[in-house]
Amino acid sequence: MRRLGIITLLFIVAVVLSFLVLKVEKNSGSIKSVFDAFWWMIATISTVGYGDIVPKTIAGRVLGIAIIIIGTSIFSLITGSVASYLVDLRIRSREGAGKVALKRHIAILGNSGKIDEILAGAVNLLNVNIPPIVLVGTFSTELVEMLKNKYPNLNLHFVKGDYTNENVLKQANIQRAHKILILLDESVSREEQERKNLHAVLTARSLSKDAEIYVETKSAENARHLIRAGATDVILPEEMSSFLLSGNLSCPAINQLFRTLTNPSAPKLKAVPIPQSFKGKQFSELMSHFRKDGMTPIAVVSVKESLKTEDLLTNDEAIDSIIMSVLSEIDLDSEKERRYDVIVNPEDDYVVKSKDIYAIVVTK
Questions:
Q1: What are the tens digits of pLDDT across the range 276-300?
Q2: Residue 269 backbone phi and psi in degrees, to 5
Q3: What is the CATH number of the domain that holds 282?
Q4: Least crowded by CB within 10 Å, which of 255, 273, 291, 352?
Q5: Is 62 domain-assigned?
Q6: Residue 135's beta-bridge partner residues?
């Protein structure tokens, strides 16, 4: 604001001097009207200097020198202000203090040590057309810069702050996010992790009715509360670990199989959009299509729209209190929640429907 005031003052002085030039040059020079004086002043302070209109008298030229000096000062201040603004914008963005102006982006919330692996998986699973990704949490600036350098093809942004805070989520433009992934905050206790994620789901859902929200939890009981709070789905690591532990009793290679299929750096298990031309055709035709590209479909994913649970409240007073305080102004009964059905190993004569959107495939 101080620079703007100085620039305005200098411009006013230049205008006054140009009228003085008009006064001394009116009878002897080429500056004979107000327009001539204004034109000459603009050409002079911008350092363009066309030379079509110039002062002839000594007094006019002295005033012209003053205007040249003023013009140089004005443009130096303007250039400095613009550079300062851009540098400040860059610093704020680097430190996670800037507002994100994105839409249809992916927001990853939570201070988790799995961020690196998740980004690696996103790069290898999405391949092309990767949406912008916004990290929200109290990560260090050094970690974020390392991730940006490690994944240069990702349009990676960072918002620093408490991911349960509404203002922080607005800064990340959660309102226009396409997908939201909420991870367990490893910097707090187990109980606090679950509480924060429930609060984050409630806040994110109050800001966006359409975003798909996926939440990590270690509690099967809490998973039910998260779904009721507005989560699209929950990720329970224990579900997979229990199966793998049991699998060792029959065949230790099951562990190696899943490790190979789900390795973030080179995943073999992927979700591929089903081409529109195969809607209404049999699964055997779709299988032949994918096998030409070295992929074997093992499942079909269908999407369906269902109303949110009518009974939002639970028997836990503490959880009910959080839900009601955050969503007191939200009409949840009118919201839609995206759900998925997974049909594993469909029969060859299974007819691909319009709601079947992905094929789960194993790649070579």
A1: 999 999 999 999 999 998 999 999 9
A2: -105, 120
A3: 3.30.70
A4: 273
A5: yes
A6: 108, 158
